[in-house]
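Dear support,

I submitted the protein below through the web form. The confirmation email said the job was done, but the results page showed an empty box. After a refresh the structure appeared. I'm attaching both so you can tell me whether what I see now is the final result or a partial one.
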Amino acid sequence: MLNRFSLFLFIYCHVFTTMAAYAEPPIVAVASNLTTPMTEIVDKFRLDTGETVRLSFGSSGNLSRQIVQGAPYDIFISASEEYIDFITSQAVTIKQQLQYADGEIGFYIPPDSIYKNLETDKQIINALAFGHQVRLTMANPDHAPYGIAALEALQNGGVWSLSTGNLIFSESVAQIVPYIHTGNIDLAIIPKSFVLQNALKDSGRFIPINQSWYRPITQYVALLKDNSPVAISFMDYLKSKNALDILIKYGYQPAGTQ
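What the results page shows now:
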């Protein structure tokens, strides 16, 4: 009798724990450049399926380190394959992986910038290369793929040195926007998607940067846990036309279509 009761208690506790885990919405760690489109995709997912996920935003590098340290993320959306490779090198198991979308970068010139009369990426590069003092902000290339792309673009365009006193690194690409709103910068390097958002679309100018100056910025999706039906459902939803249409609206292209 005792053995049967113990077995029943074990099964009950296991089922209860599993159900409790399913009751909590899965957490999706998202590279901050995708903040607006991914928030909209989650809202659409909720409308279409009645299910929801929670989003946690940050730089790809910082999120990958959190995953290695045991952060309870179910899905990781990185702005670079490098950080997917990093977590697997640290013995994190990936259940499913998807090459997802390609992004672009460009120069953003605020309305009162000393560069407000420049019209092309080459003109901006020439102004930077020939020593014009400018307050420039970009994502930190130490842990933000969009920062790496920005640095590559500057160097390949012909800018090899900048005054560190005038160069501002943001923790993530999303944190560039608050710097812009302070009015204390002349130039920023941002994702194309940012100028399609309400925060920037009605002020300043966006000048695309020659895509041959930087390596493709490809977003990757990794399913880290497969014990949540909602996480699996959201992973599938990311590939749907509804989700991809939202990405395209914000300046991204499905991976490999550029």
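Response: this is the final, complete result; the empty box was a page-load delay. Residues 2-102+217-254 form a domain with the D-Maltodextrin-Binding Protein; domain 2 fold (CATH 3.40.190.10).
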